[in-house]
Amino acid sequence: MNRILIEFAHPAIQKSRINRQLIDMVKKLDYVTVNDLYENYPDFFIDVKKEQQLLLNHDIIIWHHPFYWYSAPAILIEWMDLVLEHGWAYGEHGRILEGKSVLSVISTGGRREVYSKEGRNQYTMNEFLVPFKQSANLCRMEYLPPFIVHGAHTIKNSEIDAYAVQYKKVLNILGRGDIDKIEMKKAAYFNDLIE
Ligand SMILES: Cc1cc2nc3c(=O)[nH]c(=O)nc-3n(C[C@H](O)[C@H](O)[C@H](O)COP(=O)(O)O)c2cc1C
Fold first, then answer.
1. Whether the Cβ atoms of residue 108 and residue 150 lie closer than 8 Å to each other
2. Is the CB of 16 under 6 A from ligand 1?
3. What count of Cα atoms within 13 Å lies in the side-chain half-sphere of residue 79?
4. 3-class state of residue 111 by DSSP
């Protein structure tokens, strides 16, 4: 199995409806490591060497967080700033992450239709996620289509249950390396690749 590292960033997990349930569903899988960044670094003093070692020990990295200001909560950005060092993760001599894959797992307040050219947010999720995709690419990692849970404000509990089951399926597919690369390149969301 591929080893999967979930970089989990939710600053108020006790208030979470969606991400708490998603993470609870997958945290016990034996090929998955959950790295809860707000729990581990409440003061934001990230242990860079430890984090880099964690990255080296895994094949697939997941950036899992609610969508905040069309981006990620602050600690994930801090993690990227500090952990993805020049000369280690990128740059002429920074090739150590080459060949790994990255998946964004994100919940949003807005529904899928508002994330479009005609919709209220004017841009698609994939357009908003370009900085994440290009950061992965700069580190020679493959950025997979994102797994998105839209409509946090109106979503029913039964729908969250279904998304949690889907998330487990996604990790199982990634863990087994059971990905059709051609289909994946065509998909806007990872959600569209699974039942
Ligand atoms: C500070 C903050 C910023 C947010 N920014 C956005 C945003 O840019 N776009 C969006 O669709 N939802 C936004 N939301 C809504 C969250 O994405 C939503 O509450 C979250 O995904 C729900 O997940 P949870 O139940 O795990 O907390 C924001 C919420 C907060 C608190």
1. yes
2. yes
3. 27
4. coil
Query: Which tens digits make up the pLDDT trace of 113-143?
Result: 999 999 999 999 999 999 999 999 999 999 9
The reply to whether ligand 1 has any atom less than 6 angstroms from the CB of 68 is yes
Q: What would the mean pLDDT of 71-96 be, rounded to a whole number? A: 97
What's the pLDDT band for 145 if we cut at 50, 70, 90?
A: very high
Provide the whole-model pTM: 0.98
Q: What is the mean pLDDT of the chain?
A: 97
Find, among 104, 141, 153, the residue nearest to 125 by Cα.
104
Q: Is the pLDDT of residue 195 over 80?
A: no
How far is Cα 59 from Cα 2, in angstroms, rounded to an integer? 6
What radius of gyration do the chain's Cα atoms show?
16
Q: Is 17 in the pocket of ligand 1 (CB under 6 A)?
A: yes
* Superfamily (CATH) of domain 4-193: Flavodoxin domain (3.40.50.360)
State both tokens at 54: 């964690």
Residues 6+ apart with CB under 8 A from 137: 143
